[in-house]
């Protein structure tokens, strides 16, 4: 299976702040790749550069053979690259079902296909089915995270970008979210996962990159990095 996303030597600035410095990495079709790093390392910035929400100053982002650099965000979604943003951001006044439908707004393949995906999302995330008529704002944090994932799946992505899905969740819910991510991947969706929770992320990923103050510091097989002494000290709480 070939390379699906190739990020080559990108630089991103916020005014005079150089947030991303010559970052390169790639994600192959079918993989779960994780980008781990502490607060402010540049994880969200990298995600936003890929999804078209932020402009890169230099470098190249290639997705399925197309250069994304100048493509607007709404077009990138149409190419099957969906983002689950940091902090969930569901439409709290809308029901679960309405939120899911919002995820399908870019599609033109008709009602039947969309209905099939409702069924797929409800099968993957049965809690959402139970709560389909409930206002999203009244869901628990973990349920809102599931809804955000479900909504992204409704645009039938080939690749999902997840920005810290475990943030603010209890250990039990974190486990559940990671199990969901693994199941989504088994359905054939390639995953780029950004996380501060390095332990869980390395546990489900095939490969990983460590981002430190805007630069890639290390990369390798997830199991290899989980055993690396530097990673263990800095990100896994080892002494
Ligand atoms: N809109 C902005 N204007 C100026 N600087 C910003 C802006 N957004 C982010 N930054 C800076 O860019 C750097 C990277 O931020 P980013 O949000 O990408 O980090 P992160 O790895 O996602 O962190 P966290 O784990 O806390 O979400 C930080 O130093 C941050 O202060
Ligand atoms: Mg972030």
Question: Quick gist of this model?
Answer:
The chain is of the alpha/beta class.
Q: What is the highest CATH level, the class of one domain? A: Alpha Beta
Which whole number gives the mean pLDDT?
A: 92
| Spans where pLDDT lies below 50 across 5 or more residues | none
Beta content comes to 25-35%
Q: Provide the structure class.
A: alpha/beta
Helices and strands, in order, run as: EEEHEEHEHHHHEHEHEEHH
What is the third-level CATH name, the topology of one domain?
Rossmann fold
Helical run tally = 10
Q: Compute the number of strand runs.
A: 10
Which superfamily, in CATH terms, is the homologous superfamily of one domain?
A: P-loop containing nucleotide triphosphate hydrolases
CATH architecture of one domain: 3-Layer(aba) Sandwich
Query: Which strand order spans the largest sheet, edge to edge or round the barrel?
Result: 6-7-8-3-9-10
Span between termini:
38 Å
The best one-word shape is globular
**Distinct small molecules bound, one entry per kind:** adenosine-5'-triphosphate, magnesium ion
Q: Estimate percent helicity.
A: 25-40%
Largest sheet: 6 strands, mixed
C-alpha Rg (nearest Å): 17 Å
């Amino acid at each position: 299976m070939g390379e699906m996303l190739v990020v080559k030597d990108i630089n991103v600035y916020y005014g005079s702040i150089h947030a991303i410095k010559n970052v390169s990495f790639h994600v192959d079709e079918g993989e779960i790749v994780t980008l781990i790093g502490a607060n402010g390392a540049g994880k969200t910035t990298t995600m936003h550069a890929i999804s078209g929400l932020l402009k890169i100053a230099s470098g190249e982002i290639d997705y399925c053979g197309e250069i994304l650099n100048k493509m607007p965000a709404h077009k990138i979604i149409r190419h099957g690259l969906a983002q689950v943003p940091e902090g969930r951001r569901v439409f709290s006044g809308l029901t679960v079902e309405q939120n899911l439908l919002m995820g399908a707004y870019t599609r033109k393949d008709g009602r039947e296909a969309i209905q099939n995906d409702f069924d797929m999302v409800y099968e993957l995330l049965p809690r959402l089915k139970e709560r389909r008529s409930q206002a999203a704002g009244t869901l628990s944090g973990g349920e809102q995270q599931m809804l955000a994932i479900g909504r992204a799946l409704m645009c039938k992505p080939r690749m999902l970008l997840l920005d810290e899905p475990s943030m603010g969740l209890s250990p039990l819910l974190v486990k559940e979210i990671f199990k969901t991510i693994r199941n989504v991947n088994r359905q054939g969706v390639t995953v780029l996962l950004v996380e501060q929770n390095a332990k869980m992320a390395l546990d489900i990923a095939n490969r990983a990159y460590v981002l430190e103050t805007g630069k890639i510091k290390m990369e390798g097989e997830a199991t290899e990095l989980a055993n690396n002494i530097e990673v263990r000290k800095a990100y896994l709480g080892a002494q």
